[in-house]
From TrEMBL:
Pfam families (UniProt xref): FlgM (PF04316)
UniProt organism field: Bacillus kandeliae
Keyword list, A-Z: Bacterial flagellum biogenesis, Cell projection, Cilium, Flagellum, Repressor, Transcription, Transcription regulation
Protein name: Negative regulator of flagellin synthesis
Highest taxon, organism lineage: Bacteria
InterPro entries, per database record: Anti-sigma-28_factor_FlgM_sf, FlgM, FlgM_C
Region (Disordered): 1-28
Compositional bias annotation for Polar residues: 1-14
Record domain Anti-sigma-28 factor FlgM C-terminal: where: 33-83
Protein family: Belongs to the FlgM family.
Length: 88
């Protein structure tokens, strides 16, 4: 009985896959990564700055209330409420 070899002898069957990976590495080396920040992300960054200012204002008001120095201005509060509810 004679047994013949099947397949390709002397060649790595995974060589084609390895060649593709090497080509991809070469191509990806040529392309540089890019980062683009969307307008929504920029707005979120601005909002975080506003949050910091609010935190400082709140801590200041808490301190004034605790020491009894806080004197609310009713006219200013009324104007703020009117402006808030008149917004479309």
């Amino acid at each position: 009985m004679k047994i013949q070899r099947t397949g390709v002898s002397g060649i790595n069957p995974y060589q084609k896959q390895l060649n593709k990976q090497e080509e991809n590495k070469k191509l990806s080396g040529m392309q540089a990564d890019k980062l683009e920040i969307s307008s929504a992300a920029k707005e979120m960054q601005e909002a975080s700055k506003v949050l910091e200012a609010r935190k400082e204002k709140i801590s200041s008001l808490k301190q004034q209330v605790a020491t009894g120095e806080y004197q609310p201005n009713p006219e200013h509060i009324a104007k703020g409420l009117i402006n808030f509810f008149r917004k479309p």
